[in-house]
Every structure is written in C-alpha cells, then in structure tokens.
Design brief:
Helix content is 44%, strand content 15%. The chain is α/β, with parallel strands linked by helices. The structure holds pyridoxal-5'-phosphate (PLP).
C-alpha cells in the first residue's frame, strides 16, 4: 500500500539519526530490582520515587476497592462515575497540600488538557517557561490563547513579557515545578511575586515535585511556603504516588468550574476504583510520616556525591533527578547499553528530548534502594565510565 510508505521513510530517518527508541519490556512489579527483557537489573530510571508502585498498603487498598466497588466506573465523572472513593481522594489531597480544593483526572497529561483550555481562551495570554512539559504545551495549544514562551526560569524575561501583554483579558503564568530533564526547581516565590504585580494567575505542574519537595512531599507550594498563593497546582498520581491519575489543586473557584466544564471530566470515563483507592492510601501514608521522603533524599544525595567523586557531571539538579551528562548521542546510547550489561537499568536521553550536546543518562533513585544498591550502581558507573572514556 503506497499510501503508508511515508512511515517507512520516517522510521528509517529516526534510525539514521540515533533517535529510534527500542522500548524495553518489564516483566515484574516495580521496585529497586526489576526484571527487564528477562534479566534482573537494578532499576534507576522509574518515577517510583517512594516505592509506592508495589507498596503492600496500596495493593491492599486496591484489592479492597475492587471487592467493594468493582473494576470499572462505567461512566464519566459528571454522569454516574463519581464514587465516594473519588471524593475521598480529592478531599485528602487538598488537605495534604494545604489548599482549598482538588479535582482528580485520569492522568497528569490529561489534567493539563483539562485546566488550561477551560480557563483560557482566544483573548487571553499564557506565559510558559520554554522548557515546560509537552502536556502543558498541548494544553496551551488547545486553549487557543496566545502563548508566549519566556526563557527558562528567567524572571527578567518573564516580567518583560508580562509588561508587553498587560492589556490581555486574562493572563496565566505556567511552569513545571521541577524540570524533569535537569532536576532544577522553578523559582515559584518570584513567579508569584511578579504575577501579583501584573495581575496574572499562576500555575505549577508539580509532577516531579509531588511526594518529593516540601514537608513530607507536599510539593512545590509547600516547598516555598506558598499555600493558596499558587492559583493552580497540577499533579500526577503516576510518579511519587506510584499509581496513575492526575489532579488540579488550588483555589476552590477554579476546581468548582472544572467540575462543570473540563472536557476530560465530562467526556472521558473516571479512574477505576482500585487506582483511586491506591492513590488515597499513598496520600494517607505521606500524611502520617515523612520517612520515605527522607530516605529518597538521602539516597539521592549518596548517589550524586558518589558520581561527582568519580568525576561525572550531574549538572545543576536540586532534586533526586540526577542527569549524568555524557554530551554525545552515540556514546550515551552505548553507555546505557553497557550499564545494562552490568545489571543496571538506566535509559539514555538524547535529542529531541534534550538539546544536542547535553545527551545524558538520567537517573531516578527511589526510597526503596538500599545502601548496597547505591554502591552497586556507583561501581557499575565507574567501570563503564572508564571503559568508554567518559571519566
Ligand atoms: C509526567 C508528567 C506529566 C504526565 O503525567 P501522567 O500522569 O503520566 O500523565 C505531566 N506533567 C509533567 C511536568 C510531567 O513530568
């Protein structure tokens, strides 16, 4: 069929440019050690920051929810899909984060598609950090608002742009809380300050800050002491919370309106009972104790210090996201393969996900790694780094 030939060309083009991704297959539950393509390896690239993806309390809550509520909601939230479980999660999340209200969605990606187009339209202007996540970019496109990109975390540039569009009907500043490739944190305190000056709304996508930043993992708002000052916090239940789902937390007015008008809430089925109950169990655990969050950070600290001592460049991360900069596409891919041969699962990240010249192995440790696991990783990095002449 000639009409599909263009796909062969597109795929060949990806392969030629080292951009064709061979997806590894996981044959176990998520944990410090997992089974990948039939091999037991140390997992250093999942978003399972706190080990919740395989936590006994979350699994128990999910099983109980299946017995009590079945496996599917069989409706969208606004018709017959809102169960007591959904409301319980939303209330507990809002309390945990110290904000007025929360609404849950099917994913973090979807939460951005829900909130941005619902509150912004063609007469409005969005100010978006140039490194924002794809789901924010798509949410902005869907809204039809004019989207102005400001330089990464550059407050002078943001202010300049706010000045330029002062007369817009509504203004919204959007930033990732933690930037997932470099692990740096948006200066949310300064963003809120400049937003107040120009009467702009503020929104942080806290996907990598949730369960990580702030007291006991309460996220970026808590990290900066900005409770109820960030108008919208978007988050995911798929990273530190270990399950799946997303949410918008913040001002009650915004949440109330999303329940009426957000399209993924109105036109796509609710998250199933088991997942919702598991998410609530994760929030409960974090509300009770900051032990896992502390362990996550101390593991990250050991890993980073060890890598730096070996001579690796880990960039300017401020979080457990640890980029190991190799700065060459072919070498980065070879590095990841050699790590795998040494029983380490850590994926390479190359252009277009990151700029050319900043190719890297991105490490994400978790609270479930033992001290021995971290040392195992450092030994493998030393061996592969020397073999490939990176250190
Ligand atoms: C991972 C991520 C998302 C997507 O979350 P899902 O729940 O996996 O859909 C959205 N925004 C940011 C910043 C992310 O890092």
């Amino acid at each position: 069929m000639a009409k599909l030939d263009f796909l062969d060309e597109l795929i060949d083009d990806l392969k030629e440019h080292n951009m064709f991704n061979t997806i590894r297959t996981i044959g176990s539950s998520m944990g410090a050690w997992i089974n990948v393509d039939g091999k037991k390896v140390l997992n250093l690239c999942a978003n399972n920051y706190l080990g919740f993806a395989d936590h006994p309390r979350l699994k128990e809550a999910a099983k109980k929810a299946i017995d009590g509520f079945g496996v599917g909601p069989a409706a969208v939230r606004s018709i017959a899909g809102t169960m007591t479980l959904h409301l319980e999660l939303e209330e507990k999340l809002a309390n945990f984060k110290g904000v007025e209200a929360a609404i849950s969605f099917q994913g973090g990606f979807i939460a951005n598609q829900a909130v941005i187009p619902t509150i912004m339209g063609a007469e409005d202007v969005i100010f978006s950090d140039e490194l924002n996540h794809a789901s924010i970019i798509d949410g902005c496109r869907l809204s039809k608002a004019k989207t102005v990109r400001y330089k990464h975390c550059d407050m002078a540039d943001l202010e300049e742009k706010l000045k330029q569009y002062q007369s817009a009907r509504r203004k919204l500043i959007i930033t990732d809380g933690v930037f997932s490739m470099d692990g740096d944190v948006a200066p949310m305190d300064e963003i809120v300050e400049v937003a107040e000056k120009y009467d702009a709304m503020t929104m942080a996508d806290d996907a990598h800050g949730e369960g990580v930043l702030g007291r006991g993992g309460r996220g970026i708002g808590d990290h900066f002491g900005l409770h109820n000052k960030v108008d919208i916090e978007v988050g995911t239940m798929s990273k530190a919370f270990g399950v799946v789902g997303g949410y918008v937390a913040g001002k009650k007015k915004i949440v109330d309106y999303l329940r009426q008008r957000a399209r993924p809430f109105l036109f796509s089925s609710a998250v199933p009972p088991a997942d919702v109950a598991a998410c609530t169990a994760a929030v409960d655990i974090l509300t009770e104790s900051d032990e896992l969050v502390k362990r996550l950070w101390s593991n990250a600290d050991k890993l980073k210090k060890g890598l730096n001592a070996l001579g690796f460049d880990t960039g300017h991360t401020q979080t457990p996201i640890t980029p190991v900069l190799i700065r060459d596409a072919a070498k980065t891919i070879a590095f990841s393969k050699a790590l795998f041969e040494n029983d380490i699962f850590a994926m390479s990240i190359t252009f277009p996900t990151v700029p050319q010249g900043t190719e890297r192995i991105r490490l994400m440790n978790s609270a479930t790694h033992s001290e021995k696991d971290i040392q195992f990783a450092l030994d493998a990095f030393e061996k592969v780094g020397k073999d490939l002449k990176v250190i």
